[in-house]
Amino acid sequence: EPEVTQTPSHQVTQMGQEVILRCVPISNHLYFYWYRQILGQKVEFLVSFYNNEISEKSEIFDDQFSVERPDGSNFTLKIRSTKLEDSAMYFCASSESDRGVTGELFFGEGSRLTVL
Amino acid sequence: KNQVEQSPQSLIILEGKNCTLQCNYTVSPFSNLRWYKQDTGRGPVSLTIMTFSENTKSNGRYTATLDADTKQSSLHITASQLSDSASYICVVSAGRTYKYIFGTGTRLKVLA
Fold first, then answer.
1. Cα angle: B62, vertex A38, A12; to 5 degrees
2. How far apart are CA A88 and CA B95, in angstroms?
3. Angle at CA A89, nearest 5°, toward A84 and A94?
4. A33/B93 Cβ within 8 A
5. In chain B, which residues have their Cβ closer than 8 Å to the Cβ of A59?
6. Of A42, A93, A109, which has the smallest distance from its Cβ to B104's Cβ?
């Protein structure tokens, strides 16, 4: 069964360092998303991406964050200068469409980011 | 403001028992509602989707209901198993686009 894959599964970094989280969405999906979940809290929307550009972003997604689809298969989230509060599980998701039944989000297993 | 509230926050039940999780939403315009199961440290997985015209939908031991008038949904789990221990998240789609509003989740623990 097709699935969303994410790497790395866990990354530990020093505050101020750059981090890139990678995702391979399901191949026929057109809409891509990043969410994050701080330990014990709800899933929070970061950004959505369609047709090679950002469709929508949340307040969390400030200038420190960027997304890219460099090669038609990977979808990356970059955090330029990590802060302690960036420690969280980051989930990539993809969907076939942006509405209705085919708008179902398929999530990856997540990348746990720990900022020291 | 679009919001999704879930109750209870956490629940502990014995294996074999039934339970019901609640989701109240103030999302407009309503498109659909999904229940996701999230095992600890894993990504959420969709259990069921409810559209405006649907009142009840089952997926094995999971039965979701939707009352669009009162803006409430429930997820009923029958004959619980240890593997049902997880967080259950209610996600409501607003409007006709990809705006998904996530609930805070209910953490279910099933004990032997």
1. 120
2. 29
3. 135
4. no
5. none
6. A42
Residue B98: predicted pLDDT? 54
Average the pLDDT over B69-82 and give the result.
96
Closest chain B CA to residue A98: B98
Return the pLDDT at B97: 55
Spatial separation of the C-alpha atoms in residues A57 and B40, rounded to whole Å = 26
- Written as one string, the DSSP assignment of B12-41 is EEETT--EEEEEEEE-SSEEEEEEEEE-TT
- Residues in chain A closer than 8 A to B49 (CB atoms): 101, 104
Q: Rounded to whole angstroms, how far apart are CA atoms A48 and A37?
A: 16
DSSP string for residues in A58-98: -TT--TTEEEE--SSS-EEEEESS--GGG-EEEEEEEESSS
Instruction: Give the pLDDT of residue B88.
Output: 97
